[in-house]
Every structure is written in C-alpha cells, then in structure tokens.
Amino acid sequence: DAKTTQPNSMESNEEEPVHLPCNHSTISGTDYIHWYRQLPSQGPEYVIHGLTSNVNNRMASLAIAEDRKSSTLILHRATLRDAAVYYCILSPTFGSSNTGKLIFGQGTTLQVKP
Amino acid sequence: NAGVTQTPKFRILKIGQSMTLQCTQDMNHNYMYWYRQDPGMGLKLIYYSVGAGITDKGEVPNGYNVSRSTTEDFPLRLELAAPSQTSVYFCASSPRTGGLITEAFFGQGTRLTVV
Fold it and tell me: Which residues in chain B have their CB less than 8 angstroms from residue A98's CB?
C-alpha cells in the first residue's frame, strides 16, 4: 500500500483558513486520496476524497497537485469543533485491491485556538 | 438509520477470558471492517469482509476471529484475551456505488481493557 506523510501537528486560529498537507510520492494511478478526521473520543468520520481534480464539499476542499504526489485539505474557516486528528489515506480504486480497506498513519493533530 | 452500532461501549476482561464485540449496520453495506486503535496511534485493520460469508485478514489479525453470516452483522471474537489486546475497537462499513468504494461509516467504538 502506498504511504502518506503528514506533519504530526498544526495550529490554527478560529475562523481562519487551515491548509493540511499530505505527501504521497508513491501514489499509483488508480489510488484515490481520502481524508478522514477523528474528533476526541469518537470514531473517524469521512471528510472528502478525490482522484485527480480538486474537490469541494460542505466540510472542506481538497487540492490535488498536478503530479498527484501531494494534496492539501483546506478548511475554509476553522472552528473549535474542527480540532481533531486528520488522516490522509490512499485507497486503490479498481480490481481485487478495491476492498475499501483504509490504512491509517499517525495523522495530523489540529489544534484550533479561540 | 442508526448507522453502525457497536456493543458494548466499555468492557473489562480478565486475562484468558473470551468475548464477542458486536457490530451491526442498517445501511445494507456489503463491506465491513474491524479496526483497533491503541493510545496515541492511528487505526490498524484487524479483519474485513466484502460480503456475507466472505472474510479476510487485515494488518493485525492474530488473537481475533470474525464471521459474517448476514449483511448486517460482523462480530469480532477475542479468544484468550491478553493485555496486548487492550485497545479501542472500531467497526466500519462502506457501500459500493458504481463500482467504487468511497466513504466508510464508523461506529462509536468499544473500549476494551484486559487485566
């Protein structure tokens, strides 16, 4: 499984944008990029996913580099409720490897200051 | 929809005891997963299932067993509990839409302590 690299921790101020980076230099052409977050004492929750193009949803935006070797999760206005561990995960899309398994790394712990 | 429901929420086991962690989902998802999370770490995949009657090992299957007799239920069995199995266990399920598996839905977790 292709590996991702994320900073251990980041800080943000409330109501400011947050850019969470992820490096995945060994990504294969059929790997989707997924982001999940885990609030304290809860199970992970899905945030966003993408393949090649930038993606937006109600929670966040995902910016994918042209060579797909890195991506950035963007929270447009951080709130205190966004304080969580954010995981960037690669998952194969097609064929027998397409089982939806998620291989979690350490993630980035985001602290939001009021 | 209740989503993914795990029971119990908390449990203390003695070394050598056995127990079953229950997981049920009401979203008719074919794909289900068991993960464990040790303190300060990311989740590790224990077992997964791509449909009723089909299960496979994940990253850390030793000491666990699973079964999948129905689409809704995916119980995780611990035989001969050991302190190393002290962890928080998460069950998850995913739909397959148009050939793609995208979003996983997680339960709230079972916090297990083996003493």
Answer: 100-101
